[in-house]
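Name: Transportin-3
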Amino acid sequence: MSITCETLKPFRVVYQAVQALYHVPDPSGKERTSLWLGELQRSVHAWEISDQLLQIRQDVESCYFAAQTMKMKIQTSFYELPTDSHVSLRDSLLSHIQNLKDMSHVIVTQLALAIADLALQMASWKGCVHTLVEKYNNDVTSLPFLLEILTVLPEEVHSRSLRIGANRRTEIIEDLAFYSSTVVSLLVTCVEKVGNDEKMLIKIFRCLGSWFNLGVLDSTFMANSKLLSLLFEVLQQDKTSSNLHEAASDCVCSALYAIENVETNLPLALQLFQGVLTLETAYHMAVAREDLDKVLNYCRIFTELCETFLDKIVCTPGQGLGDLRTIELLLICAGHPQYEVVEISFNFWYRLGEHLYKTEDAIIHSIFKAYIQRLLHALARHCQLDPDHEGIPEETDDFGEFRMRVSDLVKDLIFLVGSVECFAQVRVKRKAAAFVLKARMGKLEENNPTLVEVLDGVVRLPESVHVAVRYTSIELVGEMSEVVDRNPQFLDPVLGYLMKGLCEKTLASVSAKAIHNICSVCRDHMAQHFNGLLEIARSLDSFMLSPDAAVGLLKGTALVLARLPLEKISPCLGELCAVQVMALKKLLSQEPSNGLSSDPTVPLDRLAVIFRHTNPIVENGQTHPCQKVIQEIWPVLSETLNKHRADNRIVERCCRCLRFAVRCVGKGSAALLQPLVTQMVSVYQEHQHSCFLYLGSILVDEYGMEEGCRQGLLDMLQALCVPTFRLIEQPNGLQNHPDTVDDLFRLATRFIQRSPWAIAATTLDHRDANCSVMKFLRDLVHTGVANDHEEDFEARKELIGQVMTQLGQQLVSQLLHTSCFCLPPYTLPDVAEVLWEIMQVDRPVSGRH
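Structure predicted for Transportin-3:
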């Protein structure tokens, strides 16, 4: 459809566009029309065109578009209208909503929002609630849209779409509070007029809930209102429809939330408290009728009741508003067969646990212990798998996520019940117990015989039990690694148990993770099992492991390797790396066109994790045991880097592997420094992979303090900077290459931290050279002072602050020394500027001198 303003009146053009949007089947035409209408809505002409479309009332689509546009314009572009047009706009909107009240509810809602947003921004419209109620309360046909306006008005007060200040919001809330009794009286009148009209009752409850949410209703006035008794009457009735039941439930929850400060709202609090306690029978009826929607509504109400009176429940349990029947209601809900019901109450249980943890009162704890025990038993039942469930439950589906939330909750509540007692109570119920026991490992008492008993029982589980039980039991064993460390006699049976799982497809990855945990905690005990770990590492690809699980196994093996005697580490490291090195050599020998994958990232990542976690304790003067192996592997890594020099992903993995190799042996990698830097610079001239800059910063960190390495590192910096500056000086270069910018500044920072040549250069008495040095220092420090409103200022400020913390005293001392003993008088103004900038960053540093 082609739309031109030359052929039709503007509102006719818009009308045709709306019709095309809803009725023309061509997707590309719809998209063009939608974009055109969006532009119109943002234009100043939208005010008049929307008003015209609402006046002619052609159809639902055009009226909805016009009402939506009017609402959007008032929310975002109210400033476009002159002040003297506000009254006419208000009158026009009120006329439109009255004329269109029977066309469509969605149109009424959009116009109600427009009127509410206008009232909130139109300061001259004083007492808008009173005006609206006076105008429409006697007309039964106008009550639906009047209630809609009065519902959205409090909701819009805190809307982020409206551009009103805090003072105006305060003024609005005070005005609405003043007229809140007028609204409640109107709602009571509406109830009397509409009788049992379900749609109107829903509107009445929604409106009341909205005013509760705003927090402006008078507690005493509401405690005596017929509306409150009507709410509970509706909720108690078995025949109440789902929609009305939900509206009444929402309203009660809003009321409970509004009286969070119980003492200042005591009259209403007492009425709500008593009212909710009368709903237990209605809950049981909903359960009997299998009406899950109503069950969920009741549970929401019971939970909100408990959250509102939480302080009373904890401080005065069983007395007055601390009546423990409130918690009984939640435990009744926990017994419902659908786990979605108990899940609603989790936030309350979290908060209760937090309150009790802070309350060091044994009597209070003993009161709630039985309730928490009942909750944990209910959760154990909910976590149990169906008897016909096959395989391992997914952690990402709804039930899996529920089990994870249960795990978190149990860890927060276990302190109250005691892990030993929990173990004793639930360990016989295998399918649920294994999962709940795993959750309870978060806060366990040490050196407890029950834990040893549980560990012994788990590793003796027959292989015939459900695979899901074995899966969770393996997880449990992994989390009991500290128990194994304190009881090394269990190490052999535990490893045997985990090895069985490692050989099964569905249990391999979780078993690998458990072995990793055991290795991490029981390093010294595991040293005797290193040969077994080495055999697993050699056969890694024969197990059905996820990539993370395989890497985790190698990490655990490396951690144990680091605990071997120094003389054994080098040959063992060589054997551990050999499989990965052979894989790289095989990939290097492949022809590119043979159709096989030549991606070396898997062996590179595995080598990286080995280097990263092989950290033996080496005394000064001793040769690092890993040095020889890394030097032998270097040619393969170099060739891999060269072959894939254009592939950023693979080059990043190579650099990561080299980074951990350098970190592993520290200054013992000096023999690699020159060939590594030469290759980095060579490849970087062609392909500006930012990871080379990062690797360069690692080299500076390790060797920057070595006198013999400084010049080579400085040459590296210069060689890397030329292509880097060429890259970021391109149009939008900084925006297009943020990683390069990040790594370049990291490299520069490492130079400043590790090789502070500028400080040494302050003693130069050559006029131009000294001037350049001082300018560099002044500008460098100034970057952390000058707030130029750029987004990176805070980052720069923090970076310069770190430099000053580390080198500030040294720099100030050197400047003062050179000023007194080295420099001619004409250089002192430049020195003074540097000292001034340092004072702006850190006056105490300069003041100490």
